[in-house]
């Protein structure tokens, strides 16, 4: 069973828009709990109307198949397909009758229009991840918004995609901010109990989790589930800073490369100069320098990176 904390205002906003027949776009970066909020709201949405739940909007053909399956579960008939007891068989029949994505989309829009005109609350279509929306999908999503209530979860950058503004203008926008410190603490306590985390100084541990997570639910879970309590309390490397540290060490190693190349070039030049002048000592010294460059440069670079 999932742990859910907070989001009362955002959840209320989604429900009010959905019950008023207006679509909703739920906007937040990954880890902020869009999917968790939609799952939490699912019973309330289902109490108002039939809910057609789909996972992703892209690829569009897969989305249409998922929508057909959801409509099959809800027993919303599609023209030309006699529903049997086998959803996969009916899905194949639908695919044969409507071969292109355009024909499939038209058939589903028509079916949802007939359902909406039957006198019941029109269906609510939830897309758990609509980040993959493209301009070519927009006309069909607009058509679906006219016969069903859309609830789409997206990354904020998705709202800036070209040729999608017409869709977002039809939907109420609900943004998910980070959790408050109190809500973050409540979530952390619940997850500590769920995963059986034991910390010598529980208060210090929870305070550090709240501070490090920045109120992002996904980060709270990552810290509690995958990072030891000792590392968090003692401020050891907890993963988020590891990549940056590695990049800095790699940059120091890469910065050494030009120096090694110059040293190798000097050794090669000394070797050829000694050969041209007939100076055996210079020729031998250049040869030793070239050999040292070839053998030692990988080790020198590795030493800098590790240090």
Automatic annotation (TrEMBL):
The keyword Transmembrane applies. The keyword Cytoplasm does not apply. SUPFAM superfamilies: P-loop containing nucleoside triphosphate hydrolases. Keywords: Membrane, Transmembrane, Transmembrane helix. The chain crosses the membrane at residues 254-274, 280-300. It comes from the Bacteria. This is Orc1-like AAA ATPase domain-containing protein. It comes from Thermus scotoductus.
